[in-house]
Each structure stands twice: as structure tokens, then as C-alpha cells.
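Now read this:
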Amino acid sequence: MDLKNWIRDIPDYPKPGILFRDLTPLWKSPEAFKYTIDCFAEKYLGEPIDAVAGIESRGFMFGVPLALKLGLPFIPLRKENKLPPEVVGIDFELEYGTGRMEMRVDAVEQGDSVLVVDDLLATGGTAEAAAKLIERVGGQVLAMTFVVELGALNGRDVLKGHQIHSLVTY
């Protein structure tokens, strides 16, 4: 299945000059959505992973079913003030400004191997923040996986030292 058939281009969103890759057609198709999760699971089944972490919010939509399929816990990496205490957080740069990501301090145990999931890899700033957050509490990022990678934005360069897997590259 060619997942590009399930990704819609929205020009000039969220601001002029940006070509937004919209995944709502993929979620609308149970077959395409299942295929996406199956592709991720096939790649990581049998790997030494202790948990799957999803980046808010679209990373949740792929991370939760993947965690269930792999039989692993799910760790939500959330925007500021969305989780009950005690949390650890990190500030980071976004394509359109700045952000803060948080997770529960007890979400990752010392030495846990974590698979980070998100919908899209662009400049790499959000994924880099996720890795730093997991590492700050003693975990290690086994790999990062994305549905879409925007190759021209060089997100992989920011994530050097991490295994990166994307299903679709533009």
C-alpha cells in the first residue's frame, strides 16, 4: 500500500508558504491506518523495547495502538501542565515558535529502552526534546519512528546518534 495516497497536501497552512501534510485521510481509512501500525510493529517486534512514547498529540494516535500491538506500556509526552505532578519538562524550539514538553517522572525507569513515535519529522526539534526528556530521567531512546519525514528540512541531522525510521519521505 502506498501511504502517500492517504496523505493530503494543504498549501499555506498553518501559515503562507507551508505545505501541510494532512494525515486525516489515513485515519479515516481503517485499512490504511491498520497498515501503518502493522508496518511499525513489523519493524520493532522482537526489539529490546521497554515502552513506547508518543509525542502529543498526533504521536498518541500512532503510539497507543503500536504499544498495544507490541504488548508494551505507553508513555505520553505532553504539552505543559497536562499531566499530574510530579513531572519533568524540557523547553524546545518549534518550526513556528517555542514549546515545552513534559512527562511523569516515573514514566521511565533507569535503563529503560524507549521507542519514540510521532506523525511527522520536520526540523527534528520536537523529537530531539523527546529524546532529551527520556534520557534526563535515565531512559535510552532505542529508535524514533515517524509516518512522514520531510527530508528537505534535515530533521535527521538534529537527531544524529538515534536510529530513525520513516514510512514515507517527501
